[in-house]
Amino acid sequence: MTPNKMVFGCEIILPMQAVARRLKCSDGEVEFEEHFTTLQTKLHQIHEVARKNLKVAVSHQKKY
After folding, report:
1. Domain residue extents for the chain
2. From 3's CA, which of 9, 39, 51, 60 has a CA 20 to 30 Å away?
């Protein structure tokens, strides 16, 4: 999981990907509300995973 995925909900598009038309963020044409709810759900899931990972890291660091 990258910081861009955590903040923006998708990976960055590198110039070579743009040229090759491999856009990972693009889901085609969707309605704004549908895109917003999908993005919001993705971000909540990603942040939940990040919180769990941080809790594990903190408990691991307390041992030392």
Report:
1. 3-62
2. 60
CB 11, CB 4: distance < 8 Å = yes
Question: What residues contact residue 48 under an 8 Å CB cut-off, 6+ apart?
Answer: none
Helix H segments across the chain? 3-8, 15-20, 32-62
pTM for the model? 0.55
Label residues 40-62 b or e (16+ Cβ within 10 Å = b).
eeeeeeeeeeeeeeeeeeeeeee
Token pair of 23 as six digits: 């856009």
